[in-house]
Design goal:
10 strands; alpha+beta; 2 domains; five-stranded mixed beta sheet; Aminopeptidase; Nonspecific Lipid-transfer Protein, Chain A
Length: 268
């Protein structure tokens, strides 16, 4: 599809768009069902007293992108709140990215907020996501850095759960499937507490009870550093540069794919 491909912009139609939106949300945000999409839209519309708006871009009869905006309260301090246009659900199917489609929807939602007499818009996003560039170009400023505090009590259980969720995500993400196509690798993390390892083969991730004889990627680090990289608290590149992560084996291309696996940011 060319940059100049034609598309129409319209409001979301419940009982029509849930299935397609669930597919796009699953690829962008993690596994999402039609029922979850429907529940979210209804709750947001009710909370905004009818002010809620959700736009989609439709290309050749197929929903390709979505942006929503709802009326929220922005807390500036104790007892001080102002109305804000809460932007959310900014997503595009991997088949239609980098075409300017979502930017158009984003601009229309901002115009809707402005015409409604609300003085500002706000959103929550990761600073390492590619979409962050769109927001800064449109005048958004970073005013708060979201922090996650994680204490892993059972590393083996946490690792198995992460692998299960990772498989669920890859199953619904075309861009992840394309990235991992023919990528058969065994990865080992040598941590202080223990060694954990997993393999990707035949389209699925699988935890391994112990490192096999043949390892493709081996990284020595700490549980804390690994968690910070996975949760977006530290860039993997910087962790390697500062020796917080020591690469014992692995090509640059394999490490590039590993970064996507760990962070869940597949289109960067």
């Amino acid at each position: 599809m060319s940059k100049e491909a034609e598309y129409i912009v319209r409001k979301v139609e419940l009982n029509k768009d849930e299935a397609r939106l669930a597919q796009i949300f699953s690829e962008c945000f993690g596994p999402t069902t039609q029922r979850q999409v429907q529940r979210w839209f209804r709750q947001a519309n009710k909370a905004s007293a009818g002010w809620f708006r959700s736009l989609v871009a439709e290309i050749e009869g197929e929903v390709a992108s979505s942006v929503t905006v709802e009326l929220k309260e922005l807390h500036l301090g104790e007892g001080v709140c102002i109305k804000t246009g809460g932007i959310g659900g900014v997503c595009t199917s991997s088949d239609f990215r980098r075409k300017g489609v979502v930017t158009n929807l984003f601009e229309q939602c901002l115009k809707y907020v402005e015409n409604s007499g609300v003085s500002n818009s706000s959103l929550y996003t990761g600073i390492m996501l590619p979409a962050h560039r769109i927001y800064t170009r449109k005048g958004f400023m970073n005013v708060e850095k979201w922090s996650a505090y994680v204490k892993i009590l059972d590393l083996a259980s946490y690792f198995r759960s992460w692998i299960r969720n990772l498989n669920r995500y890859v199953k619904s993400s075309k861009i992840a499937q394309e990235t991992l196509l023919n990528w058969d690798r065994c990865i080992v993390f040598e941590l202080r507490e223990r060694t954990v390892c997993f393999r990707f083969k035949h389209g699925r991730f699988k935890t391994l009870p112990k490192p096999p004889r043949s390892v493709d990627i081996a990284v020595a680090t700490t549980t804390e550093t690994l968690a910070r990289v996975m949760w977006g608290g530290e860039e993997m590149r910087k962790a390697i540069e500062t020796q917080k992560m020591q690469v014992k084996k692995g090509t640059e291309s394999d490490l590039h794919v590993l970064r996507k696996i760990l962070t869940g940011i597949w289109d960067a």
